[in-house]
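I hope you will forgive my troubling you with a question about protein structure. I should value your view on which stretches of the chain appear to form regular backbone elements. Here, with my thanks, is the record as I have it:
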Amino acid sequence: MTSEEGFKVTSLKGKVTLITGASSGIGAGASVMFAKLGALLALNGRDLENLTKVAKQCTDLGAAEPLLVPGDLTNEDTVKNTVEQTIAHFGRLDVLINSAGILAMGSIETGDLAQYDKVMNVNVRSVYHLTQLCVPHLIKTKGSIVNVSSVNGQRSFPGVLAYCMSKSAIDQFTRCIALELASKQVRVNSVCPGVIITDVHRRAGLDEDQYAQVRFGVLQTPDTSLCKRSCFPDGVTESSVRCHVSVLAEHSKYKASP
């Protein structure tokens, strides 16, 4: 079976899926693709206006109305409420997609502890906390977890030190809990896309020249020779999100993160 054929037969019909970071970028792309495949969605994001637009894209495809659970996941009460509202609304949870994350520019010389704490709180601590609260529900459904990591967790990039560290942490988090939950038939995987052109770069403080370099794949270092291509959110839907789907497919039910 080709990868294209495998993707076509994949269905997430009726699978209750909680997606964080759903108001933009990869999270938004995943939301729309999962809606196409019949998932029942609970969408989290900090920007309620954008989250509402993503929800409308989903319903325009014929999907059920997503449950919106907006809020900042660095707030512990928001994390608890997100899980509680999802379970109260749907009665169960089949899939957790940890897509929320931020990028910050800074090296060992220019970064500070405030930046480090912010990146690690959003990209790692909130993921740990949300996953911890979702695991009991995922054990009941023998569900799946997909963590959105990055090539930055596997390759070294200058100028984004805290971000690279946070994504390395997510990769190790994924491997560890995959081992811990395997006996309970909960699959855990990470997806590690390359450069995806979303507003995350502008929010990180890139000026127009730097942003243009990222867009055209020229902001490179010797250690990133395999990453000389960037893509746009449509490319996310057709590549990165396919990875999300492939690790959730029934024919891959024994897969877990290495």
About this structure: DSSP finds nine helices and eight strands in the chain. Residues 113-141 form the longest helix (29 residues).
